[in-house]
Amino acid sequence: MRNVVAIAKKELNIYFTTPIAYAMFAVMTLLLSYVFAGYLNAFSKLSLEANVNPQIAEYLNATDMIVYPLVVFGGVFVVFIVPFLSMRLIAEEKRQKTFELLMTSPLRPVEIVLGKYLGGVAIMGVAVLIALLFPAILQLFAGSAGTGGSGGIEWRTTLLGFFGLFLWSSAAMAIGMFVSSLTSSQAVSAIVSLLVLLLMWLASWGAMATDGALSEVMNWLSAQRHLHGFARGVFDLKDLAYYLSWIVLGLFLTHRAIEAHRWA
Amino acid sequence: MIEVKGLTKRYRDRAAIEGLSFELEEGDILGFLGPNGAGKTTTMRVLAGFLPATSGSAKVAGFDVFEQPLEVKRRLGYLPEQPPLYPDMTVGSYLRFCAEVKGIASKGLKAEIDRVARLTRVDDVLGRVIANLSKGYRQRVGLAQAIIGSPPVLILDEPTVGLDPLQIIEVRDLVRDLAASGKHTIILSTHILQEVTELCRKVLVIKSGKLVDFDTIEGLRSRHVDGKELSLEEIYLRLIDPTGELRHRPAEGATPAPQTPNADAGSAESAPQSAGAPSPEPAPAGAGAETTSSDGEPPTKAAAN
Prior knowledge:
The structure holds two protein chains of two kinds. Chain A is mainly alpha-helical. Chain A is about 85% helix and about 0% strand. Chain A is built from 13 helices and no strands. The radius of gyration of chain A is 21 Å and the shape is globular. The two termini of chain B are about 35 Å apart. Chain B has three domains: about 1-75 and about 150-240, 3-Layer(aba) Sandwich (Rossmann fold), CATH 3.40.50; about 85-140, no CATH class; about 245-305, no CATH class. Chain B has helices at about 40-50, 70-75, 90-100, 110-120, 135-145, 165-180, 195-200, 215-225, 230-240, 245-250, 265-275, 290-295, 300-305; strands at about 1-10, 15-25, 30-35, 55-60, 65, 75-80, 155, 185-190, 200-205, 210-215, 225, 230. The interface between A and B is medium-sized, with 26 and 29 residues.
């Protein structure tokens, strides 16, 4: 366990001494602000209309109209940002020849895998926490505006949505780490994981174009579908199982890839 | 302390080392010699548990490298050919990381880092980012990493390469101190034969993956007598190039000066390399430096390095 923590600490140390973590946080905040402002604008226009049309007021809900699309957009962001965080995890060690240090230190391959994964997941955890600032801002301003305590957002739904986002980042990180363990080129690692994650995200499109069993499989494979559940505030074990399976698979395959070095 | 039996490592059909066997006692300092590409690095990687061998066995500190790798790695410090450094970390955090993964108790961690930093004279750059350090500092940070926790076995792959003369002397002194403590068994690969004469008790020479000779320095000297006592350099050349054809072929046209006993190590190093020279004709101007150096001009060679 101590070794796992030591490696995770080292990964975070490198993420934060190089610009990569800061660049990612900055880009994310910028994009999310833009999207957030857009949804907020649409919502405020609709609520003006609601003044004259009480039917609209019935389904006017800040959580559904701002937080939900924000979480889904966050899911797209994960597709594009995680490959650039995961690409260096193992490929860089190989290129830099520091892999030799890890492999000749008294470390088990499983400790190397878990430590690196923990470092990667921690940075995505920080990103999700930063993203949580947006619903917090909403709460801050909308909370007092509501009439009779109806203001603000539904925190249970919001937190579940962000938890789903964190699960999706973790699954993406596990897959990205596996791809990174297959090459010593960070560029190759980033491109391949980006493609894989994009396919996972867009699998539901394939589901729409097909029917029968194939459609169902595609739907099940779609990362987007499973995130929707969380974002809607519905906790389904199937969705949790989906993300956990990818995490376990990614970690297992990375472990195999590192273990293979001891034999080849 | 180290027991190697019939060690073979093949990459597809090419054998990097073949049937290598030798034994070292505790406190032995071994000079590991051989031309570039002879299999020195491969042997060291196998002993350090980085590469698996194709066949044969290796035991370090009583543990089999393949069966109980963790036990071996706990007792071993390894400096690869290219120091395994994270350029984005500071020296201090890098050494801390190394100490942690080598299982040094958190209580003595700080003291141990300070100790190795002082020994390798990197204590004045602990706060600096590794990417900004000079080559000499990087090499010494790599060395600090290897000796952290005082492992009983040290494997150093060309620890003095790329250092300036003063730094070479410093590293040599450091290895000598480690050797003098008698607690370390050290395998040291180098091209600088003078270093071997100064530091090592035993010498192992390999060529094309095969053992050429393994003995104490005195043993080698007593077996190779040629009217007078030969220097290690002369012995090395005899072992690697018994007929002398490798040395003299590319030197054609230049003065075939005999190796003087006090010639610096550089000349000996270049001798086996020059075997790769493609034609016996006088070398073109571009390769001039290398050709001249191969018959005894150490300064040129040292500069080219």
